[in-house]
Amino acid sequence: MNLKCLTIAVAMACTxxxxxxxxxxxxxxxxxxxxxxxxxxxxxxxxNSQGYARFRIKAPKADSxxxxxxxxxxxxxxLTKDADGYFTGTTEGPMDEGFHYYHLNxxxxxxxxxxxxxxxxxxxxxxxxxxxxxxxxxxxxxxxxHGNVQQILFPSKSTNTSRRAFVYTPPGYxxxxxxxxxxxxxxxxxxxxxxxxxxxGHANLIIDNLIAEGKIKPFIIVMTYGMTNDTKMGPxxxxxxxxxxxxxxxxxxxxxxxxxxxxxxxDRAHRAMAGLSMGGMETHAITLAKPDEFAYxxxxxxGTYSPAELKDKPKPKLVxxxxxxxxxxxxxxxxxxxxxxxxxxxxxxxxxNTAHEFLTWRRSLSELAPxxxxx
Length: 375
Fold this sequence. Notes:
This protein is an alpha+beta fold. 23% of the residues lie in helices and 26% in strands. Residues 1-21 form the signal peptide.
């Protein structure tokens, strides 16, 4: 993906997390319940059955509080102070289903909501809120066999440090000493880190559930930090970001470490790379530069491939491209159609009623996983 496309993706990540306000919203139902992501025992923030979010912050010495969540780009939800020093307010319209980052602006300063858990996004630990999705069952915590997500530290000579990755191993991993597994290298988006796919994305639960339903064969997932320089993050700082250094970390350091320390099938035919947003940009660049490393490519709100880019390279077994219906669905659909004309196994997927946000990517992973490692 070129710099222009990357800048667009970053801008979308910053601005497209919420749906547009309805032109004639129904009356707000008073059936608010605490968000599932609240700190233990905290009543706020709350969400109702229509997708509205309500906030309540105690700050008796503050003059103004605004929640960064807004609709239609109108600057967030401003809270109103009462005589007891509590600030309360409700979003002006229902939000998109799924996970959203947010923070508080208190008298001009940026703070997190003490009522909810924090998630690394936008280059900082942000507050998180979950709007229950009608199809949330596919990433729900169920009474099924669960895999394990473990932290690893691997040596990186190219960056002169030890770097961190998280590795998902499926249920039953290690019980059969002769069994080996394919590997998906799964990258986060701009401003996030290697915790995103497990915490915000529920990747492990999605795969656990698919395995339990018999829809996929077990495989390993590796998630690592996609930045390798100290460039100030943001659209301006990204102009100085080069993928080459991360490509070295991934292909020359992390992959050999994983193959040496986990029960992998260590060949191209059993290795996939996917990423969301900026992680899609990295996937696009690395799979084109190192086509002998990966047989499965997936861009989740992360651009597209063209036949010209793939020409005269080892043919991928799958090219998967997805986005939300509020992004640019024609782009991924048209790209898949062009690739199919040239004989590639190309699949496009569009998540309905979502934008550049984690429900798009949760759904995308659920659609992608059954297409991987088809021998």
